[in-house]
Fold:
Amino acid sequence: MSDHESTYVPKTGIEKWFDSRLPIIRFGADYMSLPTPKNLNYWWTFGGILALCLVIQIATGVILAMHYVPNTELAFASVERIMRDVNGGDLIRYTHANGASMFFIAVYLHMLRGLYYGSYKAPREMIWIIGCVIFFLMIATAFLGYVLPWGQMSFWGAEVITNLIGAVPVVGEPILIWLRGGPAIDNATLNRFFSLHYLLPFVIAGCVVLHLWALHHAGQNNPVGILIPKDRQKKDTVPFHPYFTVKDGFAIILFLIMFAWFVFFMPNALGHADNYIPANALQTPAHIVPEWYMLPFYAILRAIPDKFGGVVAMFAAIGVLFVLPWLDTSKVRSMRYRPTMRTFFIIFVLVGMGLGWCGAQLPDAQVVPGMPSFTLFDGQLNSYLWLTRLLTAYYFLFFLVLMPLVGLRETPRPIPATISEPVLPTVDDPLGAGSSEQKG
Structure:
């Protein structure tokens, strides 16, 4: 849909003046009338949900910043004051805290949808890459925000993560000193983290604009995974508005119901109890863990016995997503027509959840309590450490080995020629091109 012509016509003098100087209204109108594949399912509604989450996070974050004090002696108390003394402060704080979890739930589902349907393939590589940049910025923003309440998990989480940066040869130590503002985590660190946490959401918003721009240029992917030629646009597409604005709106309402359930009935369910204890540099928690949405990457970090190797593996787990368009060698986009790869994808999703579960456990705890453990190299065979290593191996195997090899050797199922033909019967094909007989 990169050749979609503008249909916007300015009607008033003010609109014409604006359009000739900053055609932002034209961009919005053209996006609403963008030809969109008519077979998009509800997995495509998470883009709108993510946009709403970003708006909620920015709005609540700005309000919280008006009352928060980035000082190690006052930060924890200022958060409690927001909860107790600021009008609606508890609602704003819980919305912001749970909004981060909702944001990551939506982004993980959004990325898995793109992975399953091959939305990263040409000509949409730039859409995927910008999305990966947004994901990385979200992780950085979430980590910085996790430190701000200055509870036990906040302080010790910052201690662990910043120490990892120091493990990088040559440049690690200078970067660590700059990030902390000194040799140890203190007031300067909290001020830096607060400033960056406030700034990055607006950087994310700018990247979202680029993401939408790239999407507007390349056009939407679809569950079938086929490109729509210009002569088929009238048959295979419909305007984005009102068809998909209504569909997105319905999905957003359902998502907000779940969001509200956590905010009003389980506001602390996704947090860690130790973070409601003021930070104490002299008392280390029994188990230091990040928020749930970072647990898979934390597990990968712990899976590698070498400290620097763990840092490399953790960042590689995110970095491999950036080169995904060139790792997948299959000419078929959608895994709907790739049964072998679909099986490996389902295993990959289970592995991701397994990594999250392992990341929340003590590494030396037994997977099967009471079962004898056998020492192998530097760990116990019946421990979460070795289970984590197996899951980590599959994570990288999926991207670096399975995707290239399966794409070359797999025989995909027959792909429909168009979006409409699989469901609409014709004279020559009364069953429809998408019938089970033709799909094999």
In short: The chain is about 60% helix and 0% strand. The two ends are 31 Å apart (CA to CA).
